[in-house]
Amino acid sequence: MSLRAPATRLLQRSVATSALGNASRSLSTVAARGRDATSSSPSSSAPLRFSRSGPSSAPARAFSTTSPARDFESPFGVNSLAKFTEEEEMLKEAVRKFANDVVKPRVEAMDEAEKMDPEVIKGLFEQGLMAIETDAELGGAGCSFTAAIIVIEELAKVDPSVSVLCDVHNTLVNTVLRKYASKHIQEKYLPKLASDTLGSFCLSEPSSGSDAFAMKTSCKKQADGSWILNGTKMWITNSAEAEFFIVFAQGDPSKGYKGISAFAVEKSMGVEIAKKEKKLGIRASSTCTLNFDEIKVPAENLIGEEGKGYKIAIEILNEGRVGIGAQMLGLAQGAVEKSIRYAAERKQFGKAITQFQGMQFQIAQVLMEIEAARVLVYNAARLKEEGRPFTKEAAFAKLYASQVAQKASGSAIEWAGGQGFTRETGIEKYWRDSKIGAIYEGTSNIMLETIFKLVEREMQLK
Length: 462
What we know:
This is Acyl-CoA dehydrogenase short-branched chain. It comes from Violaceomyces palustris. By secondary structure, the protein is α+β, with helices and mostly antiparallel strands. It is 48% helix and 12% strand. The strands form 3 sheets. It has a 4-stranded mixed β-sheet.
């Protein structure tokens, strides 16, 4: 079954209340409760759809998919960042169950093999988690950006590798097409990206990492309007399994970053998957070098305007950084919960390790920092939904969540002692996975620079 269903079916408060009250129900039950009660023969494969529109009464928040439940609602119309709509709560619970039932049993094997299990990717598509914000008419779930962040966080609690696969596909690949591609390109590719085709975002190169616009991959326009791509991309997530790529290339070096354009490229056009990196962490997530040798791309596959690829990349990475913040947030939570449960059962000197005050203080400190990261991540997500500036907040979220993830996962290893240092518990994997948070989609130094420049502008220091 899938996590998508018609909006009218999800707006039945009694259905949502019942669903929220049983955390152990199966995903099939989620779908069944989301279906129209008047249907005499509901199909088990009917897709779930989370609506952007609400019931007839005005929603308390413009960015909510429906009016939030009245419990704990402020009389002034302002609610905490922890206030989720009914659909968001249902989605969170269903993803948690999918992660634990489908992903968790495969985590160790995928990490050891450094390969994503095809059944996990298939399951993500079947659950509707690979087109979260895509409109229902194009096969998507029609959810909010916050819904995507919820999914990324929940998956990362179990396996950050699966989380980043879903993250890149949703917040980068799908979003670029939804926001910038022509209607023809959207109708051609978004349904595939919603059903069975994995996407990849190709920006970085051997000579252009943090300096992303120093790229050498070239694009030359032909007489018939088509384009020829040549060059190499490096450190590309999802690339081993992807069949679709968004590729950035330089058309006129004399124009600098204003010569860059973006293209929708199919693997069948001749994309070569070269070296696959052997990594410290997120090992099941593929990271490869890609070669483009005289790749011919149709004129219609230009995304947005010629020479505006830099604008697309800058804007889309802001959203992607919120996604990475959510990944690091989920990672930190998953590591800490696993270690605390172990420490609560492990006894030394006649009592559980968690009963020692020194341990309690450490755990409390880390839990506070995780909660602070959560506020930054969801604040950035809500600001984005409201259409407000969120570049600085996205940098805050990505930077701090990655710092907390490293600290939390490292502490989790120590709390579990020697057992935490072994691969048997899976706790050490969270620490290995956490290191990438300070590197991709903007290094920590780039985040610090971004934050300062924005503050400098706000304070008119220059």
